[in-house]
Records
---
Amino acid sequence: MERWIDVCVVDDIPVRGSRRTRFNGVEIALFRTSEDAVYAIENRCAHKGGPLSEGIVHDCAVTCPLHSWVFDLATGKARGADEGQIQTYPVEVRDGRAVHVRFPAR
Ligand code: FES
């Protein structure tokens, strides 16, 4: 059964930046865009495992710091000519501040 976890508040995530958390041994990167949208994806690039949380956030995407692949934060899919998929996790911002992430059961 999936469950929602209260992870942090929106202001804990820098605008156009990220914050890391872990769930069931998986490192998750939370991103906040310039429009204050929040996304959660696995913090591991589909190319060679780069730390996406250290990448550059632009519009609704992040550029991996290692070889510059770009991933859509909403879908987890690589953009452009690259192919790859990052695990995404549903996010809800409750009461305008609390970030909840839905994780799968293990
Ligand atoms: S490890 Fe991310 S682009 Fe290569």
---
Amino acid sequence: MAAGSARYVRYILVGFFVLAALYYISNSGPIIPPSPSYESSRGNGQSSSHHTTGSTSEGKDSSASAPKENTTPVKSTKPNFGPGLDPKEYPMAMTPSDPAWNELSGIKEGPRVNATFVTLARNSDVWEIARSIRQVEDRFNRRYNYDWVFLNDKPFDDTFKKVTSSLVSGKTHYGEIPKEHWSFPPHIDQDKAQKVREDMAQRKIIYGDSVSYRHMCRFESGFFFRQPLMLNYDYYWRVEPSVELFCDVHYDPFRYMHENNKKYSFVLSLYEYVETIPTLWESVRKFMKNHPEHIEENNSMGFLSDDGGETYNHCHFWSNFEIGSLKWLRSQAYTDFFESLDKDGGFFYERWGDAPVHSIAAALLLKKEEIHFFNDIAYYHVPFTHCPTGDKIRADLKCHCNPKDNFDWKGYSCTSKYFDVNGLAKPEGWENQTD
Ligand SMILES: Nc1nc2c(ncn2[C@@H]2O[C@H](COP(=O)(O)OP(=O)(O)OP(=O)(O)O)[C@@H](O)[C@H]2O)c(=O)[nH]1
Ligand SMILES: *[C@@H]1O[C@H](CO)[C@@H](O)[C@H](O)[C@H]1NC(C)=O
Ligand SMILES: *[C@@H]1O[C@H](CO)[C@@H](O)[C@H](O)[C@H]1NC(C)=O
Ligand SMILES: [Mg+2]
């Protein structure tokens, strides 16, 4: 009997000890019970999902849920990551010969940039954006856990929030766009705009009869970076529904942008459909005349014009992929540029796209070296593919794109011109991909 009760005492002590240990562990991070819905915030970086709606409560509790590695439930192993670390102590692996190149599992140690993914979408886009998110996470963000901001002209529904927040490894935020950023400004003549749409419909110009597409283009040109949720960040990476990423991203492109003083970047470039922008260049020239102070001396005019600025050659960076500086888009120069164009009404009297608008701004307001071509980010948005040129790089990055699909050096791409204007050497083998 005495031996028996000693055993019970031992069991109780052991039980108490186990409970205490569990209590300690659950408060220090690594194991956290699965949360029942997307509405709760989980402290675990790999699977944390958290959403806020609107613009009031975002990001305030972020420190409480700093991501932690979820490999071992035994002790609190906090990977050293987040803002404020010294980048020099965490050099990025840019080539296969750099140490840490093959570290593609777990949460990456090192500093993070003040950055977010951003997606404009409708509720009905949920499954198409789910595909995109999954690829971005698999190829990059599962190791970095950057946040993701979703914007919509209507409230997001529960399905959209549930699906997207379950896929994003960082925190998710959902914002509704105010009416003023998604409607006709007062100076637009509605009848004139409607006649344009009817005419474009007859001429079968893609999205030519669409009002919402025009609001979308104007919003992406002038307003996404001013949404309250976006004011919490310095850099953005735009992601659209149904895009693909074909290669592993071994380093942090946000950090690359920041540390190399890049303000805008692209993966695909091409000639714009002229019918959608007949007077855009006229409007740009008016801006240049009124605001010479904003025009950068060492700009990329050669990318936009083959006659020193007289006419536009219609080259632009494709804006469905962008990694860029929000500070630049919020600058006086860009603000003046957008407002000048907006006054001329071409978003509604024509069908100006945000791609030529962003591109022309980047080419004229930034120094050449502030624009970056991400050769190693392989990408698809219907109907074009950027697949890195060269067998070695594709093998190193475990790419799954077909090199024959690469658009870079084809006749309708402007990437060759970009290389020429910047005096960059084209990758070996580019001549074999020109058609
Ligand atoms: N909330 C909202 N988002 C929209 C609307 N129209 C387009 N978008 C989003 O704006 C972005 C661009 O629209 P897309 O329809 O992809 O336009 P596009 O890339 O020129 O053409 P696609 O070839 O159809 O992809 C996408 O992220 C869409 O989800 C809209 O009316 N409301
Ligand atoms: C991130 O950038 C925003 C906008 O510039 C700024 O307000 C915010 O304080 C920054 N956050 C951090 C953690 O640096
Ligand atoms: C433009 O580039 C030239 C040559 O590289 C340099 O001397 C000049 O300072 C640059 N101008 C500006 C405004 O950066
Ligand atoms: Mg699209």
